[in-house]
Amino acid sequence: MNIPEVIELKTESEGDKPLSDVIVEMKVSAGRKNPYYIYFPKSDAAGSASLTKEEFIGQFKDFWEMGVMDYDGTPESADPIVVISLFDSSWLVENRKLALAWPLLNYERQKWDSRQEQYDYMVNNRNSEYSYLSLSVDVHKTQQIVFLVNEL
């Protein structure tokens, strides 16, 4: 994939209402093994979030650090067609001790002071207030991803 310098995202619900404090994930296929999950930061009051090329590559490389045997492929070999969905924090909530047991990975250490800080950020979102259908998008052909969800 020719990773864009910035991937723009707009989250909306019925009636074009912007969604704040939601975390959207991007499922990226590269290689033959497990997909990579890249996370946008929480959406702002206007429902917008953006992911830089550096953030994309940093998160991608953290998957290698976490489990080299489970992943292959490179950011450059990734398919530009990605699947967009809301991040589901239920595993983190249900497995808090296990989630906090991991040390911060290389890129994560640039963003977070502790695993607890990252954990709190990831579980404190408004995602559970919405339902959605996943969306397939070609990041090479889209200026801004518009992701629509429904209020529960």
Which structural category do the helix and sheet elements fall into?
A: alpha+beta
Tell me the β content. Answer: 25-35%
Q: Would you tell me the overall average pLDDT? A: 90
Number of domains: 1
Radius of gyration: 15 Å
Distance between the termini: 35 Å
Q: Given the C-alpha coordinates, what overall shape results? A: globular
Concise account of the structure shown:
The chain has 152 residues and is an alpha+beta fold.
Structure characterization notes:
With 152 residues, the chain is of the alpha+beta class. Helix content is 27%, strand content 30%. It is built from five helices and nine strands; from the N terminus they run βββββαβααααβββ. Strands 1, 2, 5, 7 and 9 form a five-stranded mixed β-sheet that branches. A four-stranded antiparallel β-sheet has the order 4-3-6-8. The longest helix is centred in the middle third of the chain and has 15 residues, at 53-67. The model has no long low-confidence stretch (mean pLDDT 90).
